[in-house]
Amino acid sequence: MKNFISDLFDLFTGDGMKHYLKSLKYSLYMILHPFDGAWDLIHENRGSMAAAHTIVILALLTRLWDKRFSSFMVNRTRWSEINILMELATVLVPLFIWVLANWCLTTLMDGKGRFRDIYMATAYSFTPYVLIGIPMIFVSNVVTMEEGVFYTYFNTFALIWCVFLILCAMMMIHDYGLLKGLGSSIMSVAGMAIIIFVILLFFSLISDAVAYFISLYKEISLRAS
């Protein structure tokens, strides 16, 4: 909490704002130079947590705007039926679990990256999704049904680009080669599945325990009366 307040205070000072804008602009360099960009992002302090948070927020907004403003030809979801919190969770929860799983795994594999570094690099890797996703929302409203396929192609390309950037970033911040970086990323995805399974199992057990005590309480109340 202390570090968060300190970062927030630094952001609104003159030098802090300059660094924030410069680090936010650096995301454009990183997506075009994924290896050098990811290395300098962490080791040369070219990135910032404030810029990383901003990119994640923009990614969340892009997802919501896509659901709300995309043409019905490419988006069959009704806005009135959308749970905004669930939409936000579909981005934030996998992001947090990915960072946690990768950090836990790479700690055992002599990885150099800290939890903060993994989050920052992953957040910066969301940049193509924002840069391509927002224009595609407008494009979807002016293209014909046949041309709507380009909407899908460009959004798919943006996601593939993001995954490629994440892989490159993990290699650079952990100082891994290609095979080790790819292997650790695949194992991190498997680790995500394990973490999700454990979380679901935990809540299932809690739910069953609560249901048991509620039924026990009702049974005792009926017998007492």
What features would you describe in this structure?
This protein has one domain (2-224). Helix content is 80%, strand content 0%. The protein has nine helices and no strands. The chain has helices at residues 2-11, 14-32, 34-43, 49-69, 84-108, 115-124, 127-139, 149-174, 178-224. It is globular.
What attributes does this structure have?
225 residues, mainly alpha, 9 helices, 0% strand, globular
Short note summarizing the structure:
The chain is mainly α and 225 residues long. It has helices spanning 2-11, 14-32, 34-43, 49-69, 84-108, 115-124, 127-139, 149-174, 178-224.
SSE sequence, one letter per element: HHHHHHHHH
Q: Count of DSSP helices?
A: 9
Strand content: under 5%
Mean pLDDT: 86
Q: Which percent range fits the helix content?
A: over 70%
Distance between the termini: 51 Å
> Main beta sheet, described?
none
Radius of gyration: 22 Å
Question: Could you tell me the number of beta strands?
Answer: 0
Low-confidence runs: none
**Total domain count:** 1
- Tell the overall outline: globular
Structural class: mainly alpha
Q: What layout of secondary structure does this protein have?
A:
Blueprint: H1 2-11, H2 14-32, H3 34-43, H4 49-69, H5 84-108, H6 115-124, H7 127-139, H8 149-174, H9 178-224
Helix pairs in contact: 2-3, 2-4, 3-8, 4-5, 4-6, 4-7, 5-6, 5-9, 6-8, 7-8, 8-9
